[in-house]
Amino acid sequence: MASDRDTLPSWAKPSHYVVSLYDLEFGGGFTYQGTTTIDLNIANDSSWNDIVLNAHQLKLYSGELKLGNGSSYEAKNITYDEKRQRATLDFADQIQYSGEALLTVKFQGTINNIMAGFYRSKYKPKGDVPMSVAKDDEFHYMFSTQFESCDARRAFPCFDEPNLKATFDVDIEIPEDQVALSNMPEKETKPSKKSGFKTVAFERTPVMSTYLLAWAIGDFEYVEAFTKRKYDGKNLPVRVYTTRGLKDQGRFALENCHQIVDYFSEVFQIDYPLPKVDLLAVHEFSHGAMENWGLITYRTTAVLFDEKTSADSYRNRVAYVVAHELAHQWFGNLVTMDWWSELWLNEGFATWVGWFAIDHLYPDWNVWGQFVSESVQLAFQFDGLRFSHPIEVPVYDGLEVDQIFDHISYLKGSSVIRMLSAHLGEKVFLQGVADYLKAHQYRNATTNDLWSALSKASGQDVTSFMDFWIRKIGFPVVTITEEPGQIGLRQQRFLLSGDVKPEEDQTVWWIPLGLHTGSSASAASLHKAGALTQKEETVRDVNNSFYQINKNLTGFYRTNYPPDRLIKLGESRHHLNVQDKIGLIGDAYANAVAGYGATPGLLALVESFQDESEYLVWSQILTNIGNVRSVFSSAGDISEGLKKYHLKLVTPAVEKVGWDFKQGEGFLIGQLRAALILSGGLNGHQATVEEAQRRFDLYISGKDKTAIHPSLRKAVFSIAVKYGGESAFDAVQNEFLTTSSIDGKEIALQSLGRVQTPELAQKFLSFIFSDKVAMQDKHSGTIALSNNSKVRLEVWKFVQDHWEDKVYPTLSGNLVVLERFLRFGLNKFAEVQTADEIAAFFKDKDVRGYDKGLAVIDDTIRSHAKYRTRDEGVVREWLGAHGYV
Predict the structure, then answer these.
(1) Where does the Aminopeptidase N-like N-terminal domain start and stop, copy by copy (predicted)?
(2) In terms of Cα–Cα distance, which of 651, 645, 639 is closest to 681?
(3) Identified catalytic residue from 161, 221, 291, 325
(4) Are 412 and 383 a contacting pair, CB within 8 Å?
């Protein structure tokens, strides 16, 4: 056993499982019976008397061990280690044996309601439902699985570690009028001994990790397409499964899916390895989706899309999430990380290559602009905290891993992949990836294995310049000083709190400069200076008329320009591309927060962007100015001045973009309209507020259900709730309860968070914790409340007042959900006092499983508090000088 991780005894390894599930209780207790038979390879020179495997919240009835020499043993005692989620089968006798063995365990499990393991999802059906479908007074249920990272052990006893790969045979007893799905196609259906039931058996899986096994049971129907490429002489069937009445909303995902399967088969130079691809919409889902091999499961809003009723932003979401999960079929499933510490190998790569595929399918979406605006900036935000972690992070046991499914593993991981791909060149990079996959298919691999393949493909020592990016915490800021004809560059670790200690600033990163210079922005070209490889360096032959570093924001670092240069770059903005503008604004904001720059520099820069026409640039502006306003919201005069600034900034763009969606209009234009109307209305643009209220009244009264375009529901509902008080709140809450749109509940929750009084905020929080709001959605409304400076304190009050009776009991069954609720709900404060209160509240509680989230909250609040104290005077002065206060 490696000393840095807590793993099962290494001398017993599985090679094959037969998992049989039967006697499922479709009402009341939701229990089931099961038998797991495991082919083991035993390599133990010593005598032994027990076998340890993973089991969590299962009742094991018996264990029988048959050895290859013909002898067999019954488990005389079965004990459980609840904390480590293990069961020990004690055979009493001392056994001296190495070789093949067969372990059969009979057990009972529960189909739970916490979105982990084998669980049930509630929904309200469309159309007639078979009598056998599980239901209560209000909802029907479908059953499905979520095993990543360590929840296969909740469903059946197993060796639940990623490098203990095996093959699986699965058979499930279900009612005759329902459908069962698993990773592989159905092999046969046999009559059951029970009347009205059948047993569905599936083909054997390839060698794979337990966390990728999956099954589902329900009243399912599907839409189907076939790949254009042939695999073993056949076009592969691709299906999107839903509960009855929703299948047509799977057509958009379906159309993307078969094209992406073919595209990745060519890019990775390995054919998709299974005989089918199923996508399943699951009504309650803790994450966005899960890459189970051959049976990919999705939150409904990540796979279903209705051309008539869905907001267009979900078109983008569905396309991307489908691509991300399909990337995992190779990168994660075919080749799996050796241990959870290298989770980034799965998630970082799948994030980057998911966007890569969407760029291929939708070149007009400016995918890399989206990536820079969303993925890179969010990664910066998280990694700028003192309490960040390296991309490759030590994980002692699998139970710690859920907290590293975060912006570092996904977004910093993918940002660093993009940086490396840009440096090596896309073609060379993808060849190295293909070589890596071929070399390690059906096995496990490490970061070093990937670096070796990329080094060989590129002829460069990738390890030497990439290892610090993966194994060291944080990222650098490059500060520039100017002299005639040259610039000085200095790298140091970036911290949002701006107080880097010498011992925290030891890393010297390899930083690709991407330096462009020339007599003007339009005449600039790439400078020969390649990378910054020491703490400080001078670059000569730089034209002071124009220069910029980190062109296209491919390097994962902040740039700190001199104040005058920032103004000049703003003046040259029409010659910069979308990624450059996003980087310029994002860096100016981050440097202001950290104290490398100051807020007036950001405000002056952004003021020049009033005539901006690109949605992605506006998205960055609105996010950053919104954050500044949030931090200074408790200083009345500054808050009012920033509101005036914000309204003046957006007014020309709001009035230009209009309300009407035109035929053939680009996707990004629609996104711009939705963002600007929301921003303008919430900031008091009178014409926008009046038009939103007019349309809201027509829609809610039923006089004209077409009065609100699907993509403008969030904007109109939010404006209505802000200005309409309790009657508007009740109307949007009713919309949540009655909507048939797949994204309707999410949009309603986000809008309800715009309430303006403590009473309505508490009413909303009570509603969130009622059984009307599914556990997967409870954080959606809280995000909006925490972003709302008028009532964000109510979230913290609610957590304190209802921790014991509502918050913890409701969310603690799935710590991923609890951590997300707290982190999103409490990280927007900017007062040290609040950070102290939160720390004191959780001091004596068992915070395992959400402790990292609490550290992020604490670090973020204290960084914002330092920023507010440091810049309050200069912001007030700037706003006064420019007529805003």
Answers:
(1) 14-212
(2) 651
(3) 325
(4) yes
Q: Taking each helix axis from N to C terminus, what angle separates 413-424 and 426-440, rounded to the nearest 10 degrees?
A: 120
Among the listed residues 539, 631, 531, the one whose alpha carbon sits nearest the alpha carbon of residue 832: 631
Query: Is the link from the previous residue into 415 a cis peptide, with omega within 30 of 0?
Result: no
- With vertex at residue 137, the alpha carbon angle to CA 249 and CA 746, rounded to the nearest 5 degrees, is 40
Each residue's pLDDT tens digit, 816-858: 899 999 999 999 999 999 999 999 999 999 998 899 999 999 9
Distant-in-sequence, close-in-space partners of 629: CB < 8 Å, separation ≥ 6: 639, 642, 643, 646, 789
Give pLDDT tens digits for 849-880.
Answer: 899 999 999 999 999 999 999 999 999 999 99
Long-range contacts of 805-808 (CB under 8 A, 24+ apart): 806/769, 807/769
Instruction: Please report the pLDDT score of residue 293 as a whole number.
Output: 98
User: Is the pTM for the entire model greater than 0.70?
Assistant: yes
User: Which residue matches tokens 């190779």?
Assistant: 330
Spatial CB neighbours of 230, under 8 Å, sequence gap ≥ 6: none
546-548 and 516-518 strand pairing: antiparallel
- Residues 700/709, Cβ–Cβ less than 8 Å: no
Rg (CA), the chain: 28
Phi, psi of 507 (to 5 degrees): -70, 135
Instruction: Kindly give the pairing relationship between strand 525-526 and strand 443-445.
Output: unpaired
With residue 371 as reference, give the H or E element that holds it.
helix 367-371
Q: Please state, in angstroms and rounded to a whole number, the distance separating the CA atoms of residues 149 and 117.
A: 10
Rounded to whole angstroms, the Cα distance separating 599 from 635 reads: 15
Token pair belonging to 536: 């400080």
pLDDT at position 3? 64
Residue 12 bridge partners (DSSP): 42
Per-chain mean pLDDT for the chain: 96
What DSSP character marks residue 805? I
Question: In this structure, are residues 737 and 726 in contact, taking their beta carbons and an 8 Å threshold?
Answer: no
Tokens of 468: 């610090």
- Contact status, residue 511 vs residue 491, Cβ threshold 8 Å: yes
Q: For residue range 432-474, what is the model confidence (pLDDT) as tens digits? A: 999 999 999 999 999 999 999 999 999 999 999 999 999 999 9
Angstrom CA distances, 280 to 222, 301, 323, stand at 9, 12, 14
Residue 198 DSSP class: E
819: annotated binding-site residue?
Answer: no
Helix 758-768 crosses helix 778-786 at what angle (to 10 degrees)?
160
Nearest to 279 by CA among 262, 263, 256, 311: 256
Q: In what order do the strands lie in the sheet with 140-146?
A: 117-123, 140-146, 215-218, 179-182
In angstroms, rounded to a whole number, what is the distance separating the alpha carbons of residues 154 and 455?
A: 41
**Maximum CA pair distance of the chain?**
91
Rounded to an integer, the average pLDDT of 690-709 is: 97
Distances (CA, A) of 554 to 314, 416, 422, 701: 26, 9, 7, 50
CA dist list (Å): 555 to 372, 492, 546, 550: 11, 15, 20, 6
Q: In what order do the strands lie in the sheet with 77-81?
A: 48-54, 86-95, 77-81
Mean pLDDT for 521-538 is 95
Check the annotation: does 258 bind a ligand: no
Q: How many CA atoms lie within 13 A of 607 on its CB side?
A: 16
**All domains in the chain, ordered by first residue:** 8-217 (2.60.40.1730), 219-330 (1.10.390.10), 333-470 (1.10.390.10)
409 pLDDT tier (thresholds 50, 70, 90): confident
**CB within 8 Å of 483: residues ≥ 6 apart:** none
The predicted structure's pLDDT at residue 387: 86
Q: What pLDDT was estimated at residue 1?
A: 40
pLDDT confidence of residue 404: 74
The verdict on whether 325 is a catalytic residue reads yes
| 440 marked ligand binding residue | no
* Beta-bridge partners for 174: 198
